[in-house]
Amino acid sequence: MNLPNGFMDLESATELIVMNWLGIFSLAATIFIAIVTINYRNKQHQIKGLLDAFKILNTREHRTSRRKVYELYIEYEKNKDVGIFDNVPEVVDVRADFDVIGTLVKSRNIDEKLFLIEYGPLAYRCWKYLKKHVEAERKKRNFNPFMKNFEDLANKANRFWSKRGYDLSKTLLYQPEQEERS
User: What is the value of pTM for the model shown?
Assistant: First the structure.
C-alpha cells in the first residue's frame, strides 16, 4: 500500500525485497548449476580425448613407427643427412599424430596435464629426433607453421617436466636392439 507522500509502507517494501531476493537467488542457483554441468561435460570430453590419444599412441603400428623414427635418428646422428627421414611413412605417421594431439591439447580437447604426465617425455623425444627434418620440411614448403603443434607440444612437455626437476634433453635415447616399450 502506498502512503500519501509516495513511499511504500514497511510491509509492502519488505514483500518486494523478499520477492526480488528470491528471484536473484533462483537465478544465481540456475547459473551455478549450469556452470557445474558445463565444466563436468568439458572434463568428460577431455578425458575421452585423452583416452583416444592413448589408443593411438599405444597401437603396435604407432610403436613400430616410433621405433623406425628412432632407428633413423641414430643413422642421422652418424651421417647428418636429414634427407634420411624424407618420404618414410613411419616418420609421416609419428609427426602427424603428435601434431594432431598437440592441436587437441592446445584446444583443450585433451587434458594437458594428464597427457604430459603420461606421454610428455615421448612427445619431446620424438620431436627431438624429428626436429631437423621438420625444419628442413618447413624450408622446402616455405611454410613455417608446418608441424607447429607438434613443436609446441614438445615444448610444453619440456617445461612441464622441467618444473618437476627433470631435464628431458638428458633422457636416454631408445636403442633399437632393446625390446622395451618405446
Answer: 0.76
